[in-house]
Design goal:
Layout lengths: L1 H6 L3 H7 L21 E3 L21 H5 L4 H17 L4 E3 L22 H17 L3 E2 L17 E3 L2 H8 L1 H10 L3 E4 L3 E2 L2 E2 L7 H5 L7 E4 L7 H6 L16 H6 L5 H18 L14 H12 L1 E5 L10 E5 L24 H7 L3 E5 L9 E2 L9 E6 L5 E7 L3 E5 L9 E8 L5 E8 L2 E7 L2 E9 L14 E8 L5 E8 L6 E9 L5 H13 L3 E7 L20 H11 L3 E6 L14 E4 L7 H9 L31 E3 L8 H7 L16 E9 L2 E8 L5 E10 L11 E10 L4 E7 L7 E3 L2 E3 L4 E7 L7 E6 L1
Helix pairs in contact: 2-11, 4-5, 4-12, 5-7, 12-16, 13-16, 14-15
GO molecular function, one term: hydrolase activity, hydrolyzing O-glycosyl compounds
Keywords: Hydrolase
Pfam family, one: Fn3-like
């Protein structure tokens, strides 16, 4: 069938198909029954295309949060839920999961990626992909390959030796291709060993060669730098479209500089994707309905990691809870950048604990960041309305939005529109002087309750695409508001037509009595409470696509707040609302620390479940946490003269700590529950390791069984130990369980001289509660 369709296409039509036709769509060819194929950013929700991308979408926890569950079944169910969301939004392919490794804790998209380990990443990503595609929606694992930092990401040449490239960074992609057969894969912005990934030979071999990938390679958005080189290489679809650098591609083919056979192979792959998604014949999958709120709540709890606990948790019969910190009423559900979606609701910790019956008093204590924050879903009364206007102020188009923080590729703005008017009803939740304002480039006029509050003159947008997802420029003015009294807000925004992305909107900041006074108020609430819960963290301004971090320190006065609260209340629990490692200098001075990641739209409900003991914190760290940044094995993410050399080789994360003999704050795999466990035995039969565990506590619980491999007598440079397999098990109090853990051949081989090899001899397998603590051992002979 595909060959018959290909034979009906002339060269110009074939090139149009591989060039894209919009920000999120491919070209349609009605003559052969081909409709457009729609793609959308994930990976934690399905934002949709420009038709409905501002309408509400389910927001699941970040990649680091779901990976912390170590739960293959959960990732499969999340994939299926995303498929249902995709069908609801008219999307054929979800751009996810993000599979790059946590090479350095400074990586800006660390929160969006899964883990520091290739085996854990590959297994979880494969489950996610299967969940999507079994429901009829394509997955697009990204970013192939070594897109592990954001600094100079569109020009950097990452330099890796053969073993590092194949055993670490290609390994999870090989797993997902072999075990889940994704329908598409995204080629990254960066270069590897001398060539941009959209032009790189790694697309041909191993991806389309020895791995047998039969799907479509899609460029990252704007990652085509040389039209002829990309067309001759393994990138099949250039996005967004139409790709300007393909304007002369037909002439290049006719002149023999690009073989037409290369174009034909790309079109075959696109037609196969169309066949798989139902775009040939306009068919659409019908996945079963999913309770997305319940699943988001379950996933947030399953990935929460209890780092320390002196017995204060769970809070059974806790009495009065002082819930303080900037995240108490304004938890950050998501990181920044293209992964953003706009949830239908966001359950805050205050709302979640009160709904669960807790006696809560609250105060922020300090600000997460200076300036304005995004408007929360619970502060909007109904949807906002966006009216697109032409130069005469006449209406061009209108659409609804579940957010006042707007993001849109400029090419997708309705034709003729040069400005927009955003109209919404804002409901404050406390009395006092609020700061209401605007963010983004262009010219803004903000009217509140019929009175113009501010006018900001035109501000040019940044021209560097790498800066698009930073914090947009802001302006604000004060206005007195009363809790619960609605006000109409109108923002007239004449945007910058030369910008690649429209990014910004209406933003707010609540009443503030001053830094010292607010901190003192929170401390007094904590002093008088039975238990204090401090919610600290980062935000989308700190952890975002387009920028790497320069520090692991919590922003603002959050460390000071924790210390002050702990000094007046020995029963202080700290909840860390961050997608990546942060320094916790007070961790030994508080009663408990719970890592809660960027937890998605059901954040507060899941947090209440965990704190009050309705469910157990189910997570184990998917990445090692340093005591301080300087302890991390990799702290360099800034290229030198355009090159970033991966000089650490195989030794990232826990591998690097073990090699250096450095003890981190918390090891890869670490996490506590509400019961205790004993590791009693490890046996090996064939390629299966069986770990015997006993639940020695008084309640049922979950354990992540981790099996590590070591080759102490190896002639090769190897990690001290590395993850070889894992499984999730649940057991009742006193129950003994034997947990089989398959040890796959891929985790025991090494790369040498362009081929795979297995070193004969003894492999020491071991198991324990983290990469740093191994309690039982057994030998495996190769």
């Amino acid at each position: 069938m595909i060959e018959d369709l290909l034979a009906q296409l002339d060269l110009d039509t074939k090139i149009a198909l591989i060039s894209g036709s919009g920000a999120w769509t491919t070209a349609a060819v009605p003559a052969i029954g081909l409709r457009e194929i729609s793609v959308s950013d994930g990976p934690v929700g399905v934002r949709g295309t420009s038709r409905d991308d501002w309408e509400a979408s389910a927001a699941f926890p970040s990649g680091s949060a779901t990976a912390a569950s170590w739960d293959v079944d959960l990732l499969h169910r999340l994939g299926a839920a995303l498929a249902a969301e995709a069908v609801r939004k008219g999307v054929d392919v979800v751009l996810g999961p993000t599979m790059n490794l946590h090479r350095s804790p400074l990586g800006g998209r660390h929160f969006e990626c899964m883990a520091e380990d290739p085996h854990l990443t590959g297994e979880l990503a494969a489950a996610y992909v299967r969940g999507l595609q079994e429901a009829g929606v394509g997955a697009c694992p990204k970013h192939y390959v070594a897109n592990d930092a954001e600094t100079e990401r569109m020009s950097v040449d990452n330099v890796l030796d053969e073993r590092t490239l194949h055993e670490l960074y290609l390994a999870p992609f090989e797993t997902v291709v072999a075990d889940a057969a994704p329908w598409t894969i995204m080629a990254a912005y960066n270069g590897v060993d001398g060539a941009p990934m959209t032009e790189n030979d790694l697309l041909a071999e191993p991806l389309k060669g020895s791995w047998g990938f039969d799907g479509l390679v899609i460029s990252d958005w704007g990652a085509v730098y040389d039209g002829e080189a990309t067309a001759a290489a393994g990138t099949d679809l250039a996005m967004p479209g139409p790709e300007a650098r393909y304007a002369g591609l037909a002439d290049s083919v006719r002149a023999g500089r690009v073989p037409e056979s290369a174009i034909d192979d790309k079109v075959r792959r696109l037609l196969l994707l169309a066949q798989r998604t139902g775009a040939l014949g306009d068919e659409h999958p019908r996945p079963p309905a999913v309770d997305v709120a319940a699943l988001a709540r379950e996933a947030a709890a399953a990935g929460s990691v209890l780092l320390t606990n002196d017995g204060v948790l769970p809070l059974t019969g806790a009495g009065r809870v002082a819930l303080v910190g900037p995240g108490a009423a304004d938890i950050r559900a998501l990181g920044g950048g293209s992964a953003i979606v706009f949830p239908p609701h966001l359950v805050t910790p205050v709302a979640g604990l009160r709904a669960a019956g807790a006696d809560v008093v609250t105060a922020p204590g300090c600000l997460l960041a200076e300036g304005l924050r995004q408007v929360r879903p619970d502060e909007l009364v109904g949807d906002a309305v966006v009216r697109w206007l032409d130069a005469a102020g006449e209406l061009v188009a209108e659409q609804r939005a579940a957010t006042t923080n707007l993001i849109r590729i400029t090419a997708e703005i309705p034709a003729g529109a040069v400005a927009l008017e955003l109209v919404c009803t804002f409901r404050p939740d406390e009395d006092g002087e609020w700061q209401l304002g605007v963010s983004g480039a262009g010219e803004h006029r903000l009217t509140v309750a019929g009175t113009e509050l501010l006018h900001r003159e035109h501000l040019d947008a940044p021209r560097d695409p790498a800066l698009l997802f930073g914090t947009p420029a802001q302006a604000s003015a004060g206005v007195a508001l009363r809790a619960g009294e609605d006000v109409e807000v109108r923002l007239h925004w004449a945007f910058d037509p030369q910008a690649f992305i429209l990014f910004g909107g209406f933003a707010v900041q609540g009443p503030w009595a001053g830094d010292d006074a607010e901190l003192a108020r929170a401390v007094e609430l904590a002093r008088d409470a039975d238990v204090a819960v401090v919610v600290v963290g980062t935000s989308e301004a700190v952890e975002s696509e387009g920028q790497d971090r320069t520090s692991l320190t919590l922003p603002g006065r959050q460390d000071e707040l924790v210390r002050a609260v702990a000094a007046v209340n020995p029963r202080t629990v700290v909840v860390v609302n961050a997608g990546s490692p942060v320094e916790l200098p007070w961790r030994d001075d508080v009663a408990a620390v719970l890592q809660f990641w960027f937890p998605g739209m059901e954040a507060g409900a899941a947090l209440a479940d965990v704190l009050l003991g309705a469910v157990e914190p189910g997570g184990r760290l998917p990445t090692t946490w340093p005591v301080v940044l300087a302890d991390a094995p990799v702290t360099e993410v800034v290229p030198t003269d355009g090159r970033l050399e991966y000089t650490e080789g195989l030794h990232i994360g826990h591998r690097g700590y073990l090699r250096a003999g450095t003890t981190p704050a918390y090891w890869f795999g670490h996490g506590l529950g509400y019961t205790t466990w004993a590791w009693e035995q490890l046996t090996v039969e064939g390629s299966t390791a069986t770990v015997r565990l006993r639940n020695t506590g008084e309640r049922a619980g979950k354990q992540v069984v981790q099996v590590y491999a070591a080759r102490p007598d190896s002639a090769l440079d190897r990690p001290v130990r590395w993850l070889a397999g894992f499984a999730v098990v649940h057991a009742g109090p006193g129950e003994v369980v034997d947990v089989p853990v398959p040890i796959g051949a891929r985790v025991l081989r090494h790369r040498i001289a362009g081929a795979w090899a297995v070193e004969p001899g003894t492999v020491v397998l071991s198991s324990g509660p983290s990469a740093g603590e191994q309690l039982v051992h057994a030998d495996l002979q190769l």
